[in-house]
Amino acid sequence: MGESPLIIICVRYFIEPSMTIGMANEVILLDYWPSPFAARVRIALAEKGIEYECKEEDLANKSPLLMKMNPIHHKVPVLIHNGRPICESEIIIQYIDDVWKVESPLLPSDSYLKAKARFWTSFINTKVHESGRKVWMSKGVDQETGKEELIEWCKLLEVELGDKPYFGGENFGFVDIALVPFYNWFNFFKNFADFNMEAECPKLVKWGNRCMERESVSKSLPNSDQMYAAFLEFKKMLNM
Amino acid sequence: MAEEVKLFRTWSSPFALRIVWALKLKGIQYETIFEDISNKSPLLLQYNPVYKKVPVLVHNGKPVSESLVILEYIEDTWKQTPLLPEDPYERATARFWAKFVDDKLMPSIWHVFVTQGKEQDEAIPLAIENLNLIEEQLKGKKFFSGETIGLVDIAFGWMGNLISVLEMVTGLKLIDAEKFPLLQAWMQNLSDVQVIKENWPPHDKLVSKFQAIRETYLATGAPK
């Protein structure tokens, strides 16, 4: 492909007075800005007010650090806490919740509500993600199928949301974090795939806009231009 | 308060077996409802409207679906005989490997099982590679969780009884004792655990069932 390696080391500090201060905490995120899974972790870290160093990966030329820290899948996101890697976004978020217990709990304390949160996150990981990929990656009939499936999944999610402001109830939490980066995809799909959620899932659109008002979310998600650039890059990579 | 625990399952589902083991390890009393997959009960469809599958755990009327989610629910609700470590990093590691079993390892072995000829030959290396990865996790340990069984052992435990069935049906030896000495030892250790030993579906029945499944796949390329 001929692109030069692009590893940008950016340092982000979110400083909050109530942040848990204790032993030296080195937190690094191996990141890729357009990845919805990496976005989840950025949102979770921001919600908790955790200081961390961000290392942006070039997926066409993965860093030795990424290969070492995620030897099984070689994928982002990876959270490296005091030198130890944690992989898989929903596992990372549960880890963050376990370690930084005080600030903004992300999972409910009730076992049954926790189970529901895990169930829906797993659903988003498989169904929403797979159908979303179809819309990104294919054309014609396959893309149409992807769009139809997404509407079907969103309707199920709307039932689960009900009249609550967030999936977590009064509080923004695990399922909200899991879904909102994909919600961001839906906004982008409007531009190139004629995908309109407002008519079919108005409650979910309201929920999405509510989430976007949170600073942790708006600062963690790529905008349309960034999505489009990533979309072109990804297509190029696949055509290699 | 009186506890009512029900498990919707089939006699052979390896996912349901995980829940049986977890409930028995923790000494939880429960009622079993066996489902006929070709004729699912209205209750199952009501309790798992999204996937319409077993297993489903119903605790005091509240349903939980997806076996790994159910295992975590059981762990959160009944604290005796913990299946997950206390340390957050070790918990994350256990969750990672349980997910690996479901997302990568099981599908790669299944792919070998439902194919033949060239397609099967091409599927084998990935299954072996995934088995190698999990073999490494057993270094210096009796079980994936250490001295006693835990989440990953339960997630992967179906291997203990099903692998010999799959090998018999396909005529292939996937878990070679020479190449996978730790997995071999683990399977033996697992089969010695009382709860596991007492709750394995009958071998002959499994062979017939999986023989039929493989034949269906080879004939039509799709499950019935």
UniProtKB/TrEMBL annotation, chain A:
Any single biological process term in GO: glutathione metabolic process
Source superkingdom: Eukaryota
Key words, A-Z: Transferase
Chain ranges of the GST N-terminal domain: 25-104
Pfam families found in the cross-reference section: GST_C, GST_N
A GO-annotated cellular component: cytoplasm
Residue span, GST C-terminal domain: 110-231
Similarity field: Belongs to the GST superfamily.
Name this polypeptide is given: glutathione transferase
Species whose genome carries this gene: Actinidia chinensis var. chinensis (Chinese soft-hair kiwi)
Automatic annotation (TrEMBL), chain B:
Database matches in SUPFAM superfamilies: GST C-terminal domain-like, Thioredoxin-like
UniProt-listed Enzyme Commission number(s): 2.5.1.18
One GO CC annotation: cytoplasm
Gene Ontology MF annotations: glutathione transferase activity
PROSITE patterns: GST_CTER, GST_NTER
Pfam family, one: GST_C
GO biological process terms, semicolon-separated: glutathione metabolic process
Catalytic activity: RX + glutathione = an S-substituted glutathione + a halide anion + H(+)
Coiled coil: none
Annotated CDD domains: GST_C_Tau (cd03185), GST_N_Tau (cd03058)
Sequence ranges assigned to domain GST N-terminal in this UniProt record: 3-82
Domain GST C-terminal: 87-210
Alphabetic keyword roster: Transferase
EC class (word): transferase
PANTHER family tied to this protein: GLUTATHIONE S-TRANSFERASE, GST, SUPERFAMILY, GST DOMAIN CONTAINING, GLUTATHIONE TRANSFERASE
Record-stated family: Belongs to the GST superfamily. HSP26 family.
Protein's UniProt name: Probable glutathione S-transferase
Species name: Actinidia chinensis var. chinensis
